[in-house]
Please model this.
Amino acid sequence: MYIFFQSEAYAPWLAPYAYGIVLLGFVFFLFRVFENFYAKSFDKPLFRNYLVYKKLTTSQVKILISNFEFYNKLSEKHKKQFQHRIAQFLSEKQYIGRGELIVTEQMKILVAAIACMLSFGRKNYKYSLINFILIYPAEFYSTVNNNFHKGEFNPKERALVLSWKDFEEGFQISNDNLNVGIHEFMHAMQLEAKNRGDIDSARFTKQFKNILNLLTKQEVKDQLDKTKFFRAYAFTNQYEFMAVLAEYFFESPQDFKTLFPKLYDYTKKLLNFNFAGY
Model:
């Protein structure tokens, strides 16, 4: 009898909490519906960041300031978001040195910075298909196709593999449209877009189709042949084209925009990139 009366006494007090939980669930549902509607209507997420609370150490920030010009061009608000995303990336990915290479803090920060720059316009920026960052001193032999590579994304092993020599050159020479970090992280982003159904993947797929359709236009083909702007490797297949396109977008934005304005616009929308003058 005691248990019966105890539950009777407490039931009225529990009701408001139950109503509150149901109401919060309904509000969250409506918010997600509106968020998806907004993303489809405007081709961008309603919010890129919900919480920004992680910070880099003073020494880590100094590495960014000294080596990563993109970071220096950001507003203070975006710098905080960028730091948060790098800190999140560092906490979730395991870095492994190969061929006696010792992975330094600077290596970790710069690889994370390239990854976070490429995904900075996205709500989903974590590269869920990558668990490991493998770094070789220079070009490495890959068993995927029995050839030497400067970089590689291996989804089966959930690994992104880099030659540090070639990755570092991507920083030192910022206008040659060769950046192995951007190239390989774009491959990871491409595959993730095929496998996920989130708003970033939907936008990526939509704009990727726009890019492929644009390439069928005769006037665009003629412009490609005339200018020889993109290196020949871009035309290996559609996936390599998109990876090379990302390199040109970040390293030669003004030339890209001048020569191929529509292609540039689709790439910008695909990445939802409205930062640092891009």
